[in-house]
Prior knowledge:
Layout: H1 5-19, H2 28-35, H3 39-51, E1 55-58, E2 64-67, H4 76-84, H5 113-130, H6 134-140, H7 145-153
Antiparallel strand pairs: 1-2
Helix pairs in contact: 1-3, 1-4, 1-6, 2-3
Amino acid sequence: MKLPVSTEWVLHCATTLAQLEPGQTASTKQLAEYYDLPAPYLAKQLQALVRAGLLIATTGPRGGFRLAHPPSDITLLQLVEAVDGAAPPYECREIRRQGRGALPPEDCRDTCILARKMAEAHDVWRENLAATTLADILAELPPTAPARTRSRIAPGR
């Protein structure tokens, strides 16, 4: 499975926001510059997180984005699904019933074993992401990362 590059952006930006002091925000421009990303496209991804209730957007000179919940309440699955949706990546089109190798209908009563295995793998992937919060990610960062992030995301603010 290959996710769009915007998924990486969202995960990193949410982790960056989780490292800020409570109430502190970062603008699209700040986040885009921090990661050298195109601001207009990043803005669309951040708005998807706002629509999903994961970020709060504020306006004004000190406006920007901040987490809508504590890092311990935001899972990686929520972030991924906010921008990529929840549809499974594998869709069985029952090609086992087509062509010269077509199986007879009586051999296709059960769900295709390949579709079943792909669904099981997707479920495990989702369970892992659902069990991992931004707080878990923060706990794995180098101890100097939050201070470094705070000093670089908004120098002079």
